[in-house]
Amino acid sequence: IAGITQAPTSQILAAGRRMTLRCTQDMRHNAMYWYRQDLGLGLRLIHYSNTAGTTGKGEVPDGYSVSRANTDDFPLTLASAVPSQTSVYFCASSDSGGRADTQYFGPGTRLTVL
Amino acid sequence: GQNIDQPTEMTATEGAIVQINCTYQTSGFNGLFWYQQHAGEAPTFLSYNVLDGLEEKGRFSSFLSRSKGYSYLLLKELQMKDSASYLCAAMDSNYQLIWGAGTKLIIKP
């Protein structure tokens, strides 16, 4: 593994189903982030984690949950998917969450909720 | 509120120079980032400015004016591979990035 990986690459999901998007980084970065990207809008922060064991809410957290059991993994869960959660989801990481460090992005997961 | 504005789309000719502007309003300011994003791919880091002035990095340069809440990305000697979206993002007082919607740059031969 080099950098950040995300799985799955794409997924079509029925509304009401539960889904977990996976994100793993091997850079030993302390901070990790989940964004969604929708056409015509900027990236919007869903949840973040400044260090293993802690998480925080971003701009659009409703309907999503995260956990950070260790440094490398930061899964995003949709408890009961709705069509408005159709989007491209990017995971990112940075050396620290408390200073102006560059964020590095995974390849993204394209999610369609029907 | 927090806001980032940048043009939706720009067109330029191969070999030419293009300037992509960005204005920002954030609660506190810890720097301005530019990212490049090719269609269907992840954003990749281009530049970071926190002090006023111009930072040059090869064919790409980035400028910041904190007093005006303004930045631009300058791309010289345009190549076809520069066709992409360019994302402006300002870091607020909580060290969170506020993103613009991106500028789609189309390069014509």
Q: How would you describe this protein?
A:
The complex is a heterodimer of chains A (114) and B (109). Chain A has strands at 4-7, 10-13, 19-25, 31-37, 44-49, 56-57, 64-66, 76-78, 87-94, 104-105, 109-113. Helices cover 0% and strands 45% of the residues of chain A. In chain A, strand 5 and strand 6 (56-57) form a beta hairpin. Chain A has 114 residues and is mainly beta. Chain A contains no helices and 11 strands. The N and C termini of chain A lie far apart (32 Å). The mean pLDDT of chain A is 96. Chain B has 109 residues and is an all-beta fold. Helix content of chain B is 0%, strand content 57%. Chain B contains no helices and 11 strands. In chain B, the strands form 2 sheets. In chain B, strands 2, 4, 5, 9, 10 and 11 form a 6-stranded mixed beta sheet that branches. A 5-stranded antiparallel beta sheet of chain B has the order 1-3-8-7-6, with no helix packed on it. In chain B, a hairpin with a 6-residue loop joins strand 4 and strand 5. Chain B is globular. Chains A and B meet through strand 5 and strand 10 of A and strand 5, strand 9 and strand 10 of B.
Average pLDDT of chain A, to the nearest integer?
96
In helices, the fraction of residues of chain A equals under 10%
Q: Please indicate the percent range of residues of chain A in DSSP E strands (runs of 2 or more).
A: 35-45%
Main β-sheet description of chain A: 7 strands, mixed
String of helices and strands of chain A: EEEEEEEEEEE
Question: Hey, which two chains have the biggest interface?
Answer: A-B, 20 and 22 residues
Write down how many β-strands of chain A occur, each being a DSSP E stretch of 2 or more residues: 11
Shape of chain B: globular
Oligomer: heterodimer
Helix-and-strand structural type of chain A = mainly beta
Report the mean per-residue pLDDT of chain B as an integer: 97
Quickly count the helices of chain A. Answer: 0
Alpha-carbon distance between the two ends of chain A: 32 Å
